[in-house]
Amino acid sequence: MRMTKAALSLRRNGLAGGAIAVLILAVAPPTAGAHGFTAPLGWWLLLAFCLAPLGLSAHLLFDAALFRLAASHEREDAALSAIDDVLERMGLRKRNGQPAPFATRLAGCRRLVWVQRILLAFALSLFAILLLDGIEGGGA
Question: How far is residue 20 from each of residues 17, 25, 40, 89, measured CA to CA in Å?
Fold first, then answer.
């Protein structure tokens, strides 16, 4: 049950964060009206602050899929071992004896969610600054 809830939460956060980043990227070009040297740098920074959350969204969706796989097992140790087996087969991680506890894995996923939120907050702030700069520059 815990793994199913974690999978749903990670999926929701991954999809929501990715949607926000795509929305910013979709709305930003039509509103690009800022002038001066800082405008190109600002737009490149906005692109970077939107692409990073998209990458984290993919990571969170992958983690959600792993937790869904784990939820299909009855025992927690078998579930965690199944996650490690998938990661090893994909060449993403080597097995090193005992699987990491569920709480440790979930804490790592929560850190990713917070990093994604912080990056999106920077992206939204930067977009607002560029939008205000474009309005000020366009009116002069």
Answer: 5, 9, 22, 32
Query: Quick one: 40 exposed, middle or buried, by C-beta within 10 A (0-12, 13-18, 19+)?
Result: exposed
The pTM for the full model equals 0.86
What pLDDT shows up at residue 110? 96
At which residue do the structure tokens 């990715």 appear? Answer: 18
Distances (CA, A) of 135 to 35, 73, 125: 10, 56, 15
Provide the CB-side half-sphere exposure for 16 (13 A, CA).
10
How does DSSP classify residue 90?
T
Tokens of 24: 């910013």
d(CA 111, CA 81) in angstroms, rounded, equals 22
